[in-house]
Design a protein that fits this description.
Alpha-Beta Plaits; 212 residues; 7 helices; 40% helix; 4 strands; elongated
Length: 212
């Protein structure tokens, strides 16, 4: 749908409304349709067209121009803008314009929905976490502790690499990395599950956490 399809334009406001959403009369580049509309406007409003083109040449000086007062005729024209129904560039009626505008709106909504669907759902938000697991003492079976930790399976949880870090008096804590989907895994619940292994685990702490 383009403005060049209209056979009549009811008002300048209608043309302005069309151009607020379109850079050109038809398509995405200047065409004969733009020239046709411009010539029709220029023919019906030659003085206004000349004035607009002339004043546009001073656009960089607008802030430094001297003060002035608009003539009474200009004020009256501005007051009557809402009632301007006499611009006859082509020829059509309100019903056709509304129908075509609605078609354009529905077409754009459909295109937007198609693009959104093509992108697919957003990837799940994930975090990488470093967890410290402290044993009771230096006699705790660390391999069993590790096996019990990794035996915990939760949807959205992936266990990663681990290491043993000395904490003093011959005791080593387990430091293990994991990746979680934020909406599926609660770190508080996970720590509680690990600490239920009371024979091996004294406590757990989140050593580090960052979003992927």
């Amino acid at each position: 749908m383009s403005f060049s399809d209209f056979s009549k334009v009811e008002s300048l406001k209608e043309l302005n409304n069309f151009l607020t959403e379109n850079s050109y009369i038809s398509g995405s580049a200047v065409t004969q349709a733009d020239a046709t509309v411009y010539k029709a406007f220029q023919k019906q409003y030659p003085a206004l067209t000349r004035w607009l083109n002339h004043i546009a040449s001073f656009s960089e000086e607008f802030d430094t121009l001297p003060a002035g007062e608009a003539p009474a005729a200009s004020k009256a024209a501005a007051a009557e803008e809402e009632d301007d129904d006499e611009v006859d560039l082509f020829g059509s009626d309100d019903e056709e314009v509304d129908e075509e505008a609605e078609k354009l709106k529905q077409q754009r909504l459909a295109e937007y929905a198609a693009k959104k669907a093509a992108k697919g759902p957003k990837p799940a938000a994930k975090s990488i976490v470093t967890l410290d697991v402290k044993p009771w003492d230096d006699e705790t079976d660390l391999e069993e502790l590790l096996a019990n930790v990794k035996a915990i399976e939760v949807e959205g949880l992936v266990w990663g690499a681990h290491q043993w870090i000395p904490v003093g008096f011959g005791i080593k804590k387990l430091q293990i990395n994991l990746v979680i989907e934020d909406d599926k895994v609660s770190l508080d619940d996970l720590q509680q599950q690990i600490e239920e292994d009371e024979d091996h685990v004294q406590s757990t702490d989140v050593a580090a956490m960052q979003k992927l």
